[in-house]
Amino acid sequence: MRTTRIHVELELHSGAEVLLPPAASTHLLRVLRLKAGATLTLFNGQGGEYAAELASAERSGARVRVGAASAIERESPLHITLLQGVARGERMDFIVQKATELGVQRIVPLSCEFSVVRLDAAALRRRVEHWRSVAIAACEQCGRNRLPQVDTITSLEDACGGSGEELKVVLVPQAPATLRTLSTAPRPVVLLVGPEGGLSGREQLLAQRHGFQACRLGPRILRTETAPLAALAALQALCGDLAS
Protein backbone atom coordinates (compact mmCIF):
# COMPACT_ATOMS: atom_id res chain seq x y z
CA MET A 1 0.00 0.00 0.00
CA ARG A 2 1.26 3.47 -0.89
CA THR A 3 2.38 5.55 2.09
CA THR A 4 1.16 9.12 2.39
CA ARG A 5 4.00 11.65 2.13
CA ILE A 6 3.70 15.05 3.81
CA HIS A 7 6.04 18.03 3.60
CA VAL A 8 6.35 20.08 6.78
CA GLU A 9 8.50 23.13 7.51
CA LEU A 10 9.53 21.75 10.89
CA GLU A 11 12.67 20.38 12.49
CA LEU A 12 12.21 16.61 12.61
CA HIS A 13 13.79 14.24 15.13
CA SER A 14 13.17 10.53 15.69
CA GLY A 15 11.04 9.92 18.77
CA ALA A 16 9.48 13.37 18.86
CA GLU A 17 5.77 14.16 18.59
CA VAL A 18 4.87 17.14 16.44
CA LEU A 19 1.66 18.98 15.71
CA LEU A 20 1.29 19.35 11.97
CA PRO A 21 0.49 22.74 10.41
CA PRO A 22 -3.18 23.44 9.57
CA ALA A 23 -2.94 22.64 5.85
CA ALA A 24 -1.22 19.29 6.42
CA SER A 25 -3.64 18.44 9.25
CA THR A 26 -6.65 19.21 7.06
CA HIS A 27 -5.27 17.06 4.25
CA LEU A 28 -4.70 14.08 6.55
CA LEU A 29 -7.86 14.30 8.63
CA ARG A 30 -10.51 15.72 6.31
CA VAL A 31 -9.32 14.82 2.82
CA LEU A 32 -7.65 11.46 3.40
CA ARG A 33 -9.69 10.73 6.57
CA LEU A 34 -6.78 8.97 8.25
CA LYS A 35 -7.25 7.61 11.75
CA ALA A 36 -4.86 7.26 14.67
CA GLY A 37 -2.28 4.58 13.93
CA ALA A 38 -2.06 5.35 10.21
CA THR A 39 1.48 5.40 8.84
CA LEU A 40 2.94 8.21 6.78
CA THR A 41 6.25 9.72 5.71
CA LEU A 42 7.43 13.20 6.65
CA PHE A 43 10.09 15.33 4.96
CA ASN A 44 11.09 18.95 5.47
CA GLY A 45 12.98 19.62 2.25
CA GLN A 46 16.39 19.51 3.93
CA GLY A 47 17.13 15.99 2.70
CA GLY A 48 16.04 12.55 3.79
CA GLU A 49 12.69 11.49 5.17
CA TYR A 50 11.14 10.12 8.36
CA ALA A 51 8.71 7.32 8.97
CA ALA A 52 5.82 8.57 11.11
CA GLU A 53 2.53 7.52 12.65
CA LEU A 54 -0.61 9.54 13.20
CA ALA A 55 -0.79 9.62 17.01
CA SER A 56 -4.02 11.55 17.46
CA ALA A 57 -6.49 13.91 15.86
CA GLU A 58 -6.98 16.96 18.04
CA ARG A 59 -9.02 20.13 17.74
CA SER A 60 -5.76 21.96 17.07
CA GLY A 61 -4.75 19.53 14.33
CA ALA A 62 -3.04 16.22 13.63
CA ARG A 63 -0.32 15.10 16.02
CA VAL A 64 2.20 12.63 14.63
CA ARG A 65 4.93 10.52 16.19
CA VAL A 66 8.20 10.76 14.28
CA GLY A 67 9.95 7.46 13.70
CA ALA A 68 13.20 6.37 12.08
CA ALA A 69 15.07 8.64 9.73
CA SER A 70 16.13 7.54 6.26
CA ALA A 71 18.83 9.34 4.28
CA ILE A 72 17.30 8.28 0.97
CA GLU A 73 17.49 10.85 -1.84
CA ARG A 74 15.83 10.81 -5.24
CA GLU A 75 17.57 13.79 -6.82
CA SER A 76 18.94 13.65 -10.34
CA PRO A 77 22.71 13.89 -10.82
CA LEU A 78 21.94 16.39 -13.59
CA HIS A 79 21.38 19.87 -12.16
CA ILE A 80 18.80 21.63 -14.33
CA THR A 81 17.53 25.21 -14.10
CA LEU A 82 14.37 25.92 -16.11
CA LEU A 83 13.88 29.49 -17.34
CA GLN A 84 10.22 29.45 -18.33
CA GLY A 85 8.20 32.21 -19.94
CA VAL A 86 5.10 32.54 -17.76
CA ALA A 87 2.14 30.69 -19.25
CA ARG A 88 -1.52 31.34 -18.55
CA GLY A 89 -3.40 29.80 -15.62
CA GLU A 90 -3.23 26.05 -15.25
CA ARG A 91 -0.62 25.72 -18.00
CA MET A 92 2.02 27.22 -15.70
CA ASP A 93 0.85 25.02 -12.82
CA PHE A 94 1.25 22.01 -15.10
CA ILE A 95 4.78 23.06 -16.09
CA VAL A 96 5.86 23.55 -12.46
CA GLN A 97 4.31 20.25 -11.38
CA LYS A 98 5.83 18.14 -14.15
CA ALA A 99 9.21 19.90 -14.10
CA THR A 100 9.42 19.05 -10.40
CA GLU A 101 8.60 15.42 -11.12
CA LEU A 102 11.29 15.41 -13.82
CA GLY A 103 13.94 16.49 -11.33
CA VAL A 104 14.46 20.20 -12.01
CA GLN A 105 16.36 21.93 -9.19
CA ARG A 106 15.32 25.50 -9.98
CA ILE A 107 12.44 27.14 -11.84
CA VAL A 108 12.70 30.78 -12.88
CA PRO A 109 9.43 32.25 -14.27
CA LEU A 110 10.13 34.89 -16.92
CA SER A 111 8.22 37.96 -18.04
CA CYS A 112 8.84 38.05 -21.80
CA GLU A 113 7.90 40.42 -24.62
CA PHE A 114 5.15 38.10 -25.86
CA SER A 115 3.91 37.08 -22.38
CA VAL A 116 0.14 37.19 -22.01
CA VAL A 117 0.21 37.20 -18.19
CA ARG A 118 0.73 40.62 -16.58
CA LEU A 119 0.51 40.91 -12.79
CA ASP A 120 0.71 43.66 -10.21
CA ALA A 121 3.03 43.22 -7.23
CA ALA A 122 0.44 41.67 -4.90
CA ALA A 123 -0.86 39.23 -7.52
CA LEU A 124 2.71 38.33 -8.44
CA ARG A 125 3.52 37.34 -4.85
CA ARG A 126 0.38 35.21 -4.63
CA ARG A 127 1.12 33.49 -7.92
CA VAL A 128 4.70 32.62 -6.94
CA GLU A 129 3.56 31.24 -3.57
CA HIS A 130 0.96 29.17 -5.42
CA TRP A 131 3.62 27.74 -7.74
CA ARG A 132 5.76 26.87 -4.73
CA SER A 133 2.83 24.98 -3.22
CA VAL A 134 2.39 23.15 -6.54
CA ALA A 135 6.07 22.12 -6.40
CA ILE A 136 5.67 20.90 -2.82
CA ALA A 137 2.67 18.77 -3.74
CA ALA A 138 4.63 17.33 -6.68
CA CYS A 139 7.50 16.40 -4.33
CA GLU A 140 5.03 14.68 -2.01
CA GLN A 141 3.71 12.66 -4.93
CA CYS A 142 6.95 11.75 -6.72
CA GLY A 143 9.15 10.99 -3.72
CA ARG A 144 11.60 13.89 -3.84
CA ASN A 145 12.88 14.95 -0.43
CA ARG A 146 14.35 18.26 -1.58
CA LEU A 147 12.19 21.06 -2.93
CA PRO A 148 13.08 22.79 -6.18
CA GLN A 149 13.71 26.50 -5.87
CA VAL A 150 10.91 28.55 -7.43
CA ASP A 151 12.03 32.13 -8.02
CA THR A 152 9.92 35.22 -8.32
CA ILE A 153 9.05 36.39 -11.84
CA THR A 154 11.99 38.15 -13.44
CA SER A 155 13.12 39.49 -16.80
CA LEU A 156 15.12 37.50 -19.32
CA GLU A 157 17.97 40.01 -19.02
CA ASP A 158 18.26 39.37 -15.28
CA ALA A 159 17.96 35.59 -15.65
CA CYS A 160 20.54 35.10 -18.39
CA GLY A 161 23.64 35.24 -16.21
CA GLY A 162 25.49 32.22 -14.88
CA SER A 163 28.85 30.80 -13.93
CA GLY A 164 29.81 29.97 -17.50
CA GLU A 165 30.15 26.29 -16.70
CA GLU A 166 26.56 25.38 -17.61
CA LEU A 167 25.21 24.00 -20.85
CA LYS A 168 22.80 26.77 -21.84
CA VAL A 169 20.01 25.78 -24.22
CA VAL A 170 17.20 27.88 -25.73
CA LEU A 171 14.43 26.07 -27.57
CA VAL A 172 13.92 27.45 -31.09
CA PRO A 173 11.76 25.42 -33.53
CA GLN A 174 13.93 26.06 -36.60
CA ALA A 175 17.33 25.65 -34.95
CA PRO A 176 19.79 23.28 -36.69
CA ALA A 177 21.06 21.63 -33.49
CA THR A 178 19.30 19.04 -31.32
CA LEU A 179 19.73 18.06 -27.68
CA ARG A 180 21.60 14.94 -28.74
CA THR A 181 24.18 16.97 -30.63
CA LEU A 182 24.57 19.46 -27.76
CA SER A 183 24.73 17.03 -24.86
CA THR A 184 28.14 15.80 -23.73
CA ALA A 185 29.28 14.79 -20.26
CA PRO A 186 26.79 15.58 -17.48
CA ARG A 187 27.11 19.18 -16.29
CA PRO A 188 24.63 21.80 -15.07
CA VAL A 189 22.03 22.73 -17.67
CA VAL A 190 20.05 25.95 -18.05
CA LEU A 191 17.01 25.45 -20.29
CA LEU A 192 15.19 28.51 -21.69
CA VAL A 193 11.62 28.19 -23.01
CA GLY A 194 9.40 31.02 -24.21
CA PRO A 195 5.74 31.71 -23.31
CA GLU A 196 2.73 31.01 -25.57
CA GLY A 197 3.90 33.54 -28.14
CA GLY A 198 7.48 32.31 -28.07
CA LEU A 199 10.60 34.42 -27.66
CA SER A 200 10.98 37.53 -29.75
CA GLY A 201 13.88 37.89 -32.15
CA ARG A 202 15.50 40.34 -29.76
CA GLU A 203 15.17 37.87 -26.87
CA GLN A 204 16.67 35.04 -28.91
CA LEU A 205 19.66 37.23 -29.78
CA LEU A 206 20.00 38.31 -26.14
CA ALA A 207 20.04 34.68 -25.01
CA GLN A 208 22.62 33.72 -27.62
CA ARG A 209 24.85 36.63 -26.58
CA HIS A 210 24.78 35.13 -23.07
CA GLY A 211 25.96 31.76 -24.34
CA PHE A 212 22.65 29.98 -24.99
CA GLN A 213 22.71 27.54 -27.89
CA ALA A 214 19.58 27.32 -30.03
CA CYS A 215 18.08 23.85 -30.19
CA ARG A 216 15.00 22.26 -31.76
CA LEU A 217 12.81 19.40 -30.53
CA GLY A 218 12.08 17.58 -33.77
CA PRO A 219 9.98 18.74 -36.74
CA ARG A 220 6.86 19.76 -34.82
CA ILE A 221 6.22 23.02 -32.95
CA LEU A 222 5.31 22.20 -29.35
CA ARG A 223 3.16 24.26 -27.01
CA THR A 224 4.83 26.16 -24.18
CA GLU A 225 3.60 23.59 -21.64
CA THR A 226 4.81 20.66 -23.78
CA ALA A 227 8.23 21.86 -24.93
CA PRO A 228 10.00 22.13 -21.54
CA LEU A 229 8.76 18.72 -20.41
CA ALA A 230 9.85 17.03 -23.63
CA ALA A 231 13.27 18.68 -23.33
CA LEU A 232 13.62 17.81 -19.64
CA ALA A 233 12.74 14.18 -20.27
CA ALA A 234 15.26 14.03 -23.13
CA LEU A 235 18.00 15.63 -21.02
CA GLN A 236 17.37 13.24 -18.14
CA ALA A 237 17.50 10.31 -20.52
CA LEU A 238 20.72 11.53 -22.16
CA CYS A 239 22.63 12.77 -19.13
CA GLY A 240 20.52 12.24 -16.01
CA ASP A 241 18.75 9.39 -14.28
CA LEU A 242 15.60 8.78 -16.32
CA ALA A 243 16.99 5.62 -17.87
CA SER A 244 18.71 4.34 -14.72
List the helices and strands and how they pair.
Layout: E1 4-7, E2 17-19, H1 22-31, E3 39-43, E4 49-58, E5 61-70, E6 80-85, H2 89-101, E7 106-111, H3 121-142, E8 149-150, E9 154-155, H4 156-159, E10 167-171, H5 179-182, E11 189-193, H6 201-209, E12 213-215, H7 227-239
Helix pairs in contact: 2-3
Portion of residues in beta strands equals 25-35%
Query: H/E series, N to C?
Result: EEHEEEEHEHEEHEHEHEH
Span from first to last CA?
A: 24 Å
How many helices in DSSP terms? 7
Low-confidence stretches: none
Anisotropy-based shape = elongated
CATH architecture assignment name of the largest domain: 3-Layer(aba) Sandwich
Query: What is the overall pLDDT average?
Result: 91
Description:
The chain is built from 7 helices and 12 strands. It folds into 2 domains: 4-70, Beta Barrel (Ribosomal Protein L25, Chain P), CATH 2.40.240.20; 80-239, Alpha/beta knot (3-Layer(aba) Sandwich), CATH 3.40.1280. It is 31% helix and 25% strand. The two termini are 24 Å apart. The mean pLDDT is 91. Strands 6, 7, 8, 9, 10, 11 and 12 form a 7-stranded parallel sheet that branches. With 244 residues, it is an alpha/beta fold. The protein is elongated, with a radius of gyration of 20 Å. Helix 2 (89-101) runs parallel beside helix 3 (121-142).
